[in-house]
Design a protein that fits this description.
By secondary structure, the chain is of the alpha+beta class. About 30% of the residues lie in helices and about 40% in strands. This is Single-stranded DNA-binding protein.
Protein backbone atom coordinates (compact mmCIF):
# COMPACT_ATOMS: atom_id res chain seq x y z
CA UNK A 1 0.00 0.00 0.00
CA UNK A 2 1.17 3.49 -0.80
CA UNK A 3 2.18 5.88 1.91
CA UNK A 4 0.74 9.37 1.52
CA UNK A 5 2.92 12.28 2.67
CA UNK A 6 0.79 14.98 4.22
CA UNK A 7 3.45 17.60 5.04
CA UNK A 8 4.20 19.30 8.34
CA UNK A 9 1.96 18.57 11.32
CA UNK A 10 1.88 19.46 14.98
CA UNK A 11 0.22 16.99 17.36
CA UNK A 12 -0.30 17.21 21.13
CA UNK A 13 -1.10 14.19 23.25
CA UNK A 14 0.04 11.71 25.87
CA UNK A 15 2.79 9.15 25.49
CA UNK A 16 1.35 5.64 25.42
CA UNK A 17 4.69 4.08 26.40
CA UNK A 18 8.20 5.16 27.33
CA UNK A 19 10.30 6.31 24.37
CA UNK A 20 12.61 3.55 23.16
CA UNK A 21 15.71 3.26 21.02
CA UNK A 22 15.61 0.91 18.06
CA UNK A 23 17.98 -0.05 15.26
CA UNK A 24 16.46 -0.46 11.80
CA UNK A 25 17.42 -3.41 9.57
CA UNK A 26 19.63 -0.95 7.66
CA UNK A 27 21.54 -0.18 10.90
CA UNK A 28 20.04 3.27 11.50
CA UNK A 29 19.39 4.21 15.15
CA UNK A 30 16.09 5.87 15.96
CA UNK A 31 14.20 6.84 19.08
CA UNK A 32 10.52 6.01 18.74
CA UNK A 33 7.45 6.85 20.74
CA UNK A 34 3.72 6.36 20.46
CA UNK A 35 1.42 9.30 21.06
CA UNK A 36 -2.34 9.35 21.71
CA UNK A 37 -4.13 12.57 20.72
CA UNK A 38 -7.48 12.71 22.49
CA UNK A 39 -10.30 14.12 20.38
CA UNK A 40 -13.16 16.09 21.92
CA UNK A 41 -16.34 17.42 20.41
CA UNK A 42 -19.16 19.62 21.61
CA UNK A 43 -22.50 17.85 22.04
CA UNK A 44 -25.09 20.52 21.26
CA UNK A 45 -27.99 18.55 22.72
CA UNK A 46 -26.25 17.97 26.06
CA UNK A 47 -24.43 21.33 25.80
CA UNK A 48 -21.14 19.87 26.96
CA UNK A 49 -17.82 18.62 25.65
CA UNK A 50 -17.35 14.88 25.39
CA UNK A 51 -14.56 12.51 24.42
CA UNK A 52 -14.66 11.43 20.78
CA UNK A 53 -11.91 8.81 20.82
CA UNK A 54 -8.19 9.04 20.27
CA UNK A 55 -5.89 9.13 17.27
CA UNK A 56 -2.59 7.33 17.67
CA UNK A 57 0.70 8.40 16.07
CA UNK A 58 3.95 6.51 15.67
CA UNK A 59 6.76 9.02 16.04
CA UNK A 60 10.36 8.46 14.92
CA UNK A 61 13.31 10.69 15.79
CA UNK A 62 16.51 10.39 13.77
CA UNK A 63 18.24 13.48 15.19
CA UNK A 64 20.71 12.05 17.72
CA UNK A 65 20.58 14.93 20.19
CA UNK A 66 16.78 15.24 20.12
CA UNK A 67 16.46 11.47 20.46
CA UNK A 68 18.80 11.37 23.46
CA UNK A 69 16.93 14.21 25.16
CA UNK A 70 13.52 12.62 24.54
CA UNK A 71 14.70 9.20 25.70
CA UNK A 72 16.21 10.56 28.93
CA UNK A 73 13.46 13.09 29.73
CA UNK A 74 10.06 11.72 28.78
CA UNK A 75 7.99 8.83 30.11
CA UNK A 76 4.68 7.07 29.55
CA UNK A 77 1.78 9.41 30.33
CA UNK A 78 3.72 12.66 29.71
CA UNK A 79 1.84 15.25 27.68
CA UNK A 80 3.95 16.42 24.72
CA UNK A 81 3.73 18.30 21.43
CA UNK A 82 5.44 16.81 18.38
CA UNK A 83 6.22 18.79 15.22
CA UNK A 84 7.35 17.01 12.10
CA UNK A 85 6.67 15.47 8.71
CA UNK A 86 3.38 13.61 8.72
CA UNK A 87 2.38 10.61 6.60
CA UNK A 88 -0.58 8.23 6.53
CA UNK A 89 -0.69 4.63 5.34
CA UNK A 90 -3.97 2.68 5.20
CA UNK A 91 -4.07 -0.96 6.33
CA UNK A 92 -6.55 -3.79 6.92
CA UNK A 93 -6.54 -5.81 10.15
CA UNK A 94 -6.66 -9.62 10.26
CA UNK A 95 -10.38 -9.23 11.00
CA UNK A 96 -10.86 -7.22 7.80
CA UNK A 97 -11.26 -3.84 9.53
CA UNK A 98 -9.68 -0.84 7.79
CA UNK A 99 -7.31 1.45 9.69
CA UNK A 100 -4.69 4.14 9.27
CA UNK A 101 -1.06 4.18 10.37
CA UNK A 102 -0.27 7.79 11.26
CA UNK A 103 3.45 8.49 11.32
CA UNK A 104 5.50 11.56 12.16
CA UNK A 105 9.22 12.04 11.59
CA UNK A 106 9.82 14.48 14.45
CA UNK A 107 11.68 17.75 13.97
CA UNK A 108 10.95 18.79 17.56
CA UNK A 109 9.33 17.40 20.71
CA UNK A 110 8.21 19.65 23.56
CA UNK A 111 7.00 18.63 27.01
CA UNK A 112 3.83 20.34 28.22
CA UNK A 113 4.02 22.34 31.43
CA UNK A 114 0.23 22.30 31.84
CA UNK A 115 0.28 19.08 33.86
CA UNK A 116 3.86 18.59 35.03
CA UNK A 117 6.92 20.57 36.01
CA UNK A 118 9.86 20.13 33.65
CA UNK A 119 13.51 20.67 34.48
CA UNK A 120 15.26 22.39 31.58
CA UNK A 121 18.98 22.14 30.98
CA UNK A 122 21.77 20.17 32.50
CA UNK A 123 25.11 21.09 34.00
CA UNK A 124 27.50 22.34 31.31
CA UNK A 125 29.65 19.19 31.43
CA UNK A 126 26.62 16.94 30.78
CA UNK A 127 25.33 18.78 27.71
CA UNK A 128 27.98 17.58 25.32
CA UNK A 129 29.07 19.53 22.27
CA UNK A 130 26.79 22.46 21.61
CA UNK A 131 26.68 23.45 17.96
CA UNK A 132 27.09 27.17 17.58
CA UNK A 133 28.24 27.95 21.13
CA UNK A 134 31.76 28.63 19.94
CA UNK A 135 30.40 30.87 17.21
CA UNK A 136 28.15 32.68 19.70
CA UNK A 137 30.95 33.43 22.16
CA UNK A 138 32.84 35.97 19.96
CA UNK A 139 29.49 37.58 19.13
CA UNK A 140 28.75 37.93 22.87
CA UNK A 141 32.20 39.41 23.43
CA UNK A 142 31.65 41.83 20.56
CA UNK A 143 28.25 42.71 21.98
CA UNK A 144 29.83 43.37 25.38
CA UNK A 145 32.41 45.58 23.65
CA UNK A 146 29.67 47.43 21.77
CA UNK A 147 27.70 47.81 24.98
CA UNK A 148 30.75 49.22 26.78
CA UNK A 149 31.40 51.59 23.87
CA UNK A 150 27.76 52.70 23.86
CA UNK A 151 27.88 53.25 27.62
CA UNK A 152 31.02 55.36 27.20
CA UNK A 153 29.32 57.45 24.49
CA UNK A 154 26.27 57.82 26.75
CA UNK A 155 28.47 59.08 29.62
CA UNK A 156 30.23 61.56 27.31
CA UNK A 157 26.89 62.83 26.01
CA UNK A 158 25.61 63.31 29.56
CA UNK A 159 28.78 65.19 30.52
CA UNK A 160 28.44 67.41 27.43
CA UNK A 161 24.81 68.05 28.32
CA UNK A 162 25.76 69.00 31.90
CA UNK A 163 28.47 71.41 30.63
CA UNK A 164 25.99 72.99 28.17
CA UNK A 165 23.42 73.44 30.96
CA UNK A 166 26.03 75.12 33.18
CA UNK A 167 27.06 77.47 30.38
CA UNK A 168 23.45 78.38 29.65
CA UNK A 169 22.83 79.09 33.34
CA UNK A 170 25.79 81.51 33.29
CA UNK A 171 24.47 83.37 30.19
CA UNK A 172 20.83 84.40 30.75
CA UNK A 173 18.76 85.12 27.64
CA UNK A 174 20.58 82.62 25.38
CA UNK A 175 18.78 79.51 24.05
CA UNK A 176 19.71 76.31 25.91
CA UNK A 177 21.01 73.04 24.51
CA UNK A 178 17.48 71.96 23.61
CA UNK A 179 17.10 74.97 21.36
CA UNK A 180 14.33 76.46 23.51
Amino acid sequence: MAQERMGEKSVAGNLVEDPRRITTPAGRELVTLRLAENQRRFNREAREWEDAGASFYDVAIDNERLGNNVESSLHKGDHVRVDGNYSVEPYVTNEGEPGLNRRIWANDVAASLRFDAVEIGAPEHERGPDVGVEAQQPAREQQVGVTSEAQQLQREAEESWAVAQQQQAQQPGQPGPSGG
